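[retry 2/3] L-aspartate oxidase: previous attempt timed out, resubmitting with same input.
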Amino acid sequence: MTWHAGADLLVVGTGVAGLTAALRARERGLRVLVVSKEAAGVGNTEWAQGGIAVVRSEECDPADSVRQHVRDTLEAGAGLCSTSAVRTILGDGAAAVRRLCAAGARFDGEASGALSRTREGGHSAFRVIHAGGDATGAEVQRALVEAGTEAGIPILENHCVVELSHTEWGAVGGALVLDHAGRPGVVQAPAVLLATGGLGQLYRATTNPEVATGDGVALGLRAGAAVADLEFVQFHPTVLHTSATERGSRPLITEAVRGEGAVLLDSRGEPVMAGRHPMGDLAPRDVVAAAINEKLAETGSESVYLDATGLGDGFVARFPTVYTACRDAGIDPLVEPIPVTTAAHYSCGGIMCDVDGRTGVTGLYVAGEVARTGLHGANRLASNSLLEGLVLGTRSADAALRDLRSGSLRRGSVVTERPPAAAVVERSRLQRLMSGYAGIGRHADGLRRAKSGLDAAAVVRPLRSRSEVEDAALGLTAHALLAAAADRTESRGCHRRYDHPGTDDLRWGRPNPLRLDVSGWLIRSTPEESREVA
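[retry 2/3] L-aspartate oxidase: success.
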């Protein structure tokens, strides 16, 4: 090893969950070190357009309440949410937003004394607060990065975590890290928090930036943690479709546009959501995305259309990010419908943890999109993700502090090995397989084809560079997702099986945890193991 560092808490990731945890831990007196693959401001958080779903007593619809927010979340989650986790996380929401505002975040309407609120798919009330019109994530990221800088929190930018290290008694005790020049080093810390974000780069078309390569899922699995609900990948119903956006990260057209009155039309001008759901264009995302894909298959078109012309000139001020993306593509949303299609957006599953971010591995905590808390179930309710990152970031930092003070976490020497070797698949091939066989619609034969294709294309290599680490993470995460999707022989939420179109509550009304055995094979965890952190 060429370099060493140490901390009480190592945070991996600089999105809303990671930076919130780092700020909380520093505030409570812990030595914190943060690792980021890129600059601190790069990641999924800054791309979030819609807002933060939260019920605040000082400003809410007369009929709205945290209880109603809980009901909406459970309805969207299609029977797989943890009711206790939903109540806890949403109940902490108002306090989390207050802390965010204290850290410097500024929301629309603040100058008038009441934050502006909108409504998104699956919500029964106007409870989504936003910033910069449709730039909420960018404002959250800005505020947290600036607060972290002012607090003097050290961030190792352009550093990549290769593997989590263990102490002699089996607890997580730090990480093997590559610096900006690819030199390996060791960070020792009795508590490690993974806040690495999502896995959108498994697919050819995604709303996620290029850093979203499933790193945390792979790190957690290799460290001994269980994962669950990976089969539930939420595809956003409305991303901009042009000839230039066939592959890669696509501009998101926030759901709030429909919340303000825009409607989805097919290529014949007929409403996409007519007769499909009581909430129409504001139905949960899995319902809308599936309806769009059916329309595309029916009409042979490459896109449907989001007609926002009825919103008038106010569209520009309310949705500046969307307006700019459309104009850059040669589309004027004030006078013509926006061509849209679906793209991989959010992972509802991840590493299993409790509402304090604790996993089944001593010393390992998770927060944000990489965590499976039970909040999202089979389909995330719109704008619950930033809220979860804020709440879990705080709660996981508090949990790590309590565990350190109680003596349940101890410092110990860690094994400092060379970078490990792992199976790597060329990324474009992996993305073709996953998009072709593990997208919105799935069946057993396609899932088998995807797995066989990954196996045939895999090459074992030492993980000596960031790209190799990311490709290995994508490969392991893809295998875990395929295994979970093959196991779940039903259709529920984001997971739709053409060969099993019905929902089977008796057999599948529960998570299906997976972990790696000592030989590195994915195996199904027992119900007892899954209850440990459920």
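[retry 2/3] L-aspartate oxidase: The two ends are 37 Å apart (CA to CA).
[retry 2/3] clearing retry counter.
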